[in-house]
């Protein structure tokens, strides 16, 4: 199967399915585009050569036609001058040039038709190239979407923002633990201060009782009364 036929078959019937089944559709499309570019370059080169050849045939055809017309004029002049021998020679060359012109005409027509057919195929190939190129852009966009989605999934799998939130959770636990320790310490100090205050009151009461007892003792020793 020729490359042109292969490209036509793929682009008309199998390209989408072929690309969907490919593990790397962009690379597959690039390979196909490379084949199409090579085919277009060869076709374009051949087309230019055919144009040159067709033009050469046209020039040869017209040249033979002009020579035939000139020999016809010369034969007419020779007849008028009574030179039948020269007239025959001129007419013989005229017939030869007319035959050459006809052969070149046939070759020219064939070459022109072939060039027109090749030009049509080249235009079709260029259109198909653009079609495949547009599919490359589409699949490139799809592959980029998949790549970004994979990165997003990898980021989610690694924790992503959750990692940062978990760090705040750990910090919250540490702060809460510190607050509990601080609250417990304050309660212990408050309890100590309460006990100290209660102990001071008890000592003062004892001291007053001791003082009263001492005063009574002194009064009794002196035989007086307590003031």
From TrEMBL:
Q: Which UniProt keywords apply?
A: Coiled coil
Membrane-crossing residues? none
* Signal peptide start-end: none
Q: Which InterPro entries match?
A: PspA_VIPP1 (IPR007157)
Task: Locate the coiled-coil region(s) and give their ranges.
Answer: 72-142, 168-224
Q: Which domain of life is it from?
A: Bacteria
Q: Which family does it belong to?
A: Belongs to the PspA/Vipp/IM30 family.
- This protein is called what? PspA/IM30 family protein
Its source organism is Paenibacillus thermoaerophilus
């Amino acid at each position: 199967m020729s490359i042109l036929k292969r490209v036509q078959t793929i682009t008309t019937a199998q390209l989408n399915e072929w690309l969907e089944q490919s593990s790397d559709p962009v690379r597959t499309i690039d390979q196909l585009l490379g084949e199409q570019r090579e085919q277009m370059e060869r076709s374009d080169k051949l087309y230019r050569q055919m144009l040159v050849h067709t033009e050469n045939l046209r020039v040869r055809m017209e040249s033979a036609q002009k020579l035939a017309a000139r020999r016809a004029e010369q034969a007419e002049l020779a007849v008028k001058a009574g030179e039948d021998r020269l007239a025959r020679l001129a007419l013989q060359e005229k017939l030869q040039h007319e035959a050459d012109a006809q052969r070149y005409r046939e070759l020219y027509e064939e070459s022109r038709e072939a060039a027109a057919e090749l030009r049509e195929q080249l235009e079709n190939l260029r259109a198909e190239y653009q079609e495949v190129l547009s599919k490359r852009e589409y699949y490139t966009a799809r592959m980029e979407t998949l790549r970004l989605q994979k990165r997003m999934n990898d980021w989610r799998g690694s924790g992503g923002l959750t990692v940062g939130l978990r760090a705040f959770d750990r910090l919250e636990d540490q702060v809460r633990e510190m607050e509990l320790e601080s609250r417990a310490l304050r309660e212990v100090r408050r309890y100590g201060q309460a006990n100290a205050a209660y102990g001071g009151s008890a000592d003062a009461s004892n001291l007053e009782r001791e003082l009263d007892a001492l005063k009574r003792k002194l009064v009794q020793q002196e035989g007086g009364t307590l003031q």
